[in-house]
């Protein structure tokens, strides 16, 4: 019998479009893949666990006082559970691990916003806690980053994240492959 699974949708919230680095040209292809993943998971009977990031008192779009801690438009699907975190990963300051274990869930699918930050960090911690993780890289979104006069593209950041996670903390998998695996399980 396959291990029970859950889809983690991390930080897919209205806070991000309010950030100065938001780029709709990068977001649109991600929206399509995130939507396809959500729809496939629902059809396969895999519960959605929504994670929101909040930073009370920060004055940023992540401050609950600003009213942006809610699903990004188009992603308000019913969730089996919603957790609010203040750390980069979804485990440290939530009851996520207990909630998953109480339901016999040992396999996680990670998706959401930002690839190298909350998604990658959640994947690493999940693996360390004994969960099996599929990192659905194409259903994660990030933006270019700048340091010391150099710009790293979103594609470079995603490739680096895949490199450091693959085979150590997670399996890197795409939406189409997951859909095929889920259909084969039912057949």
UniProtKB/TrEMBL annotation:
Listed SUPFAM superfamilies: Isochorismatase-like hydrolases
InterPro entries documented for this protein: Isochorismatase-like_dom, Isochorismatase-like_hydrls, Isochorismatase-like_sf
Signal sequence coordinates: none
Entry keywords, A to Z: Hydrolase
Entry annotated with the keyword Hydrolase: yes
Domain Isochorismatase-like: start-end pairs: 5-158
Domain of life: Bacteria
Name of protein: Isochorismatase family protein
Organism: Halomonas kalidii
């Amino acid at each position: 019998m396959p291990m029970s699974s859950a889809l983690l949708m991390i930080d897919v919230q209205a806070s991000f479009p309010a950030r100065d680095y938001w780029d709709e040209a990068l977001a649109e292809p991600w929206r399509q893949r995130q939507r396809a993943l959500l729809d496939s998971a629902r059809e396969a009977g895999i519960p959605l666990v929504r994670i929101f990031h909040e930073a009370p008192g920060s004055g940023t779009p992540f401050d609950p006082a600003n009213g942006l801690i809610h699903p990004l438009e188009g992603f308000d699907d019913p969730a089996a559970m919603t957790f609010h975190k203040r750390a980069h990963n979804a485990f440290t300051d939530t009851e996520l691990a207990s909630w998953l274990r109480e339901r016999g869930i040992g396999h996680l699918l990670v998706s959401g916003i930002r690839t190298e930050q909350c998604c990658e960090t959640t994947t690493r911690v999940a693996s360390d806690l004994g969960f099996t993780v599929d990192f659905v890289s194409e259903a994660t979104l990030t933006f270019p980053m700048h340091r010391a006069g150099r710009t790293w593209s979103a594609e470079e950041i995603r490739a680096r994240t895949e490199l450091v996670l693959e085979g150590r903390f997670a399996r890197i998998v795409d939406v189409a492959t997951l859909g095929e695996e889920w259909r084969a399980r039912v057949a």
